[in-house]
Amino acid sequence: MAEAKPKKVPVLHKQPMTRQDPQERIHNFYEVALGYGEDQARAEANRCLQCKKSPCVAGCPVEIDVPSFVASMKEGDFAAAIRKIKEKNCLPAICGRVCPQEDQCEKVCVLGVKGEPVAIGRLERFAADYEIEEMQPDPPARPAPTGKRVAVVGSGPAGLTVAGDLVKLGHEVTIFEALHRAGGVLVYGIPEFRLPKAIVQKEVDYVASLGVEFRLDAVIGKLLTVDDLFASGYQAVFLGNGAGLPTFMNIPGENLNGVYSANEYLTRSNLMKAYLFPEYDTPIIRGHNVAVVGGGNVAMDSVRTALRLGADNAYIIYRRSRTEMPARYEEIENAGEEGVQFLMLTNPVRILGDERGWVKAIECLKMELGEPDESGRRRPVPVPGSEHQIPVDIVVMAIGNGANPLVASSTPGLAVSRWGNIIADPETGQTSKEGVFAGGDIVTGAATVILAMGAGRKAARAIQSFVQGK
Fold first, then answer.
1. Could you state, in chain order, the average pLDDT of each consecutive group of 10 residues for the chain (470 residues)?
2. Contact, 428 vs 462, CB < 8 A?
3. What's the pTM value of the predicted model, to 2 decimals?
4. CATH number, domain at 98?
5. CA–CA separation, 147 vs 175, rounded Å?
6. Domain boundary residue among 399, 420, 450?
C-alpha cells in the first residue's frame, strides 16, 4: 500500500514587511511600507492552503481568483500571477496598498482560524510592483468595436473599474474628470506616504492603454450635463463622482483662519503638492500644534501629514474609544509609532481664536460610552463639567464627506436620498433615470477603494446588458 503523503504543516505567521523607521519617515513623504522581496513573496505564497472552497474569492469585492494567483507566486511565476489578477482588477498596485484586506479576503482566510491569514494584499502589491519594475504591461487585445458609447463621470476607483471592464467588451468609453489629474480620491485624498502618485498614474495609464479616453478638467454639471452626454451619442452614463463635499461640526469658531476640512488639507498637500512649497506654489499652513477631529483613515492621513509638515504636537480628537475607531489598525499603529497623540473619548464643542481671527485653542468635553447606536457602536455621552481647552493653531475636520449636489441638481429625473446621495440599485447601479448608473461613494457615502471598485464591476455588467439591448 502506498504511503500517505505527509500533511502540510501550515506556517501560522505572515512574512513581516519592512517599513521606514518612524523617526525617519516623519521627516519625508516617501512610502512607509516598503513591500516584499521575491523570497518573502514566495515564502508567503507557500503558506496558502489552496482551499477547495476558496472563501477568499467570495470575500473579494472584485472576485479575484486568489488561489490561482497565489499558486503562481509560489512557483515564482510572477508574470502569470499578475495576469491572473488583472483578469478581474485593473488597479492591483493601488489595492495592494490601501484596500482593507483584513476585512475582506483575508478576513475569511482559513489560516486565520488558528494563526494569521495569508497576506493576500501584500502579495497582490508585490505582483503589481513586479510588473511595473520588471515587465512591460501587456494589455489584452482589443475586441471588435460594438459601436456602443458609454460616458463615465469621475476617474476614481469606481469609474476606472467600470471603464476598464466595458472597454474590454468592445465599447467606446470616455471618462470625464473634473480635476486636472485622473484618479479621483486616489490622487487628492490619499497621501504620498501611503499611496505614491506615480503608482496611481501607472494604473491610470494601463486603463488608458486598454482604450479608455480621458477628458480632464471636464466638470459635468457645468461643462456638460448628463442629458448633453446622451444627446452627443452616449448610450449609457455611469456616475462615479465620489463624495467630495466637506462635512463640519457646526460648532462656534469653525470659520476661523487655520480651520481646514480634511478635503482641502489633503488636496492641497497631495494633488497640489503643497508639502513641496515653494517648488510648487500651493501654500499650506504649517502649524506647531495641530488637532485633527475624527477617527477614520482620512483622519489618520491628515494627522500624519501634519507631522510631516513640521507639527510639534499632532492630536487625534475622537469622541469614542480606540476600539470603535473605523481607521485600519495598521494606520492607527503607524500614527502611534510616529508620535501622534490620541485624545480618546473627547469631543470638540468650540474653537477659540485670537484677536487676528486665527485659531488659538479648541475646547472639548470628555465623553463616556453609553448604549449602542444605529451603527452598532456605543453612543458617546458628555461628562458634565469636563470642559477643557487644548492650545492648537490648526484644526482639521475629518468627520466624513457629503455628496456634491452639482451632477444630481443638473440631471432631471435623478433621485437622491435626503443626504444627497444618488439612489441606485446595489446589485446593478441602475438609478431612477433610464440609462444612468451610479456607484461608489456618491451612492454609499465615503467608503473604501475596493467597495467602490466592486460597485463599478456590478454596474459594468448591468450597462453591458443595457447597451446590448438597445
1. 61 92 96 96 96 93 95 96 94 95 94 94 97 84 93 97 96 97 94 96 95 97 96 98 92 97 94 86 90 97 96 97 93 97 98 97 96 85 96 97 92 95 97 97 91 96 93
2. yes
3. 0.93
4. 1.10.1060.10
5. 17
6. 399
